[in-house]
Request: fold
Amino acid sequence: MLEKIKLITAFSGLLVLFSCQSSSKEENKQASKPATPPAAKVDGFIVTPQLLSQDIEVPGSLAAYQEVELHPEVAGRVTGVYFREGSNVAQGSMILKIYDGDLQAQLQKLLVQLKTADQTAERYAALLKINGVSQQEYDLNVLAVNNIRADINIIRTNIARTSLRAPFSGKMGTSTITPGAYISPTTIITTLRKVSQLKLEFTVPEKYGAQMKPGSLIHFTVENNNASYSAKITATENNITAETRSLKVIALVDKANAQLIAGSFTKVQIPLGENNAALMIPTQAIIPQARNKKVMAVRNGIASMETVTTGIRDSAMVEITTGLKAGDTVLITGLLSTKPGSKVQIGPLRPLKGN
Reply:
């Protein structure tokens, strides 16, 4: 009986020991199991349609409406300079004269020959009527007269080439040519610019090329001048520049102004219209990538990375053209610490500075 009591006591002790060990293991398992991390608290921005005035500013430069370097057509010695530097000249005005004495002598010789040939042709015509000469002899004399007239036209053309005239009305540039100088067709006499009318040259990014239509009104300013001037687009280049992905545009300045000088640097303001449903988000919400741009959007409390396409940008906001829709929420804080698929808790929405 005593042995049975001892066995029961020992068995009960083993049960208590096993129970304690299993309880301890269960507590250790529960203690080693990681706790679910709390949702990160971040600030968000709800994407809502806004009114966007799509204006861009690009650099440009003023140029003369017409500009040309004046070169002589033939080589020779200058016998006369008939312009003053910086003066205005009319179209067709004599600018410079090259020696043509030898050509004038050839012309006089041919004129004498023509007079004699005309008289001979008249006599042959009278003889042909009475069959005093053959038709062939008469035709040969007429041919001689026509050849002399052709030679005279050639000489007169060569004489005209010794005179340099203004191809259009404009303002003369500076020059170092004086009478007595020997010049050739490669010599630059001066420049002629039509400054009574100026044109504006500038380039725009490729995506705005389709909106640069002839007749569109633009505005520009020049350095050290707060006045705003207007111009109308007249033409665009017929191809996109491969290096800069931009389009060259030409605009005609509406009115001449003494403060506008060809070659001046300008700032061109181009209105692209208004968009009543532009989706604008803060610039700090954009995550730049190597090939595209992304934002961290929040849907049902879960963060997700979305690829977007941007449009018009200012100092605080940027337009989203694709990738988001009205009503979406994007993160503006905690972008580096938030991972796609993690839970986030959006704090109270507050307006950004400047908006």
Notes: The chain has a mean pLDDT of 84. The domain at 100-161 is CATH 1.10.287 (Helix Hairpins).
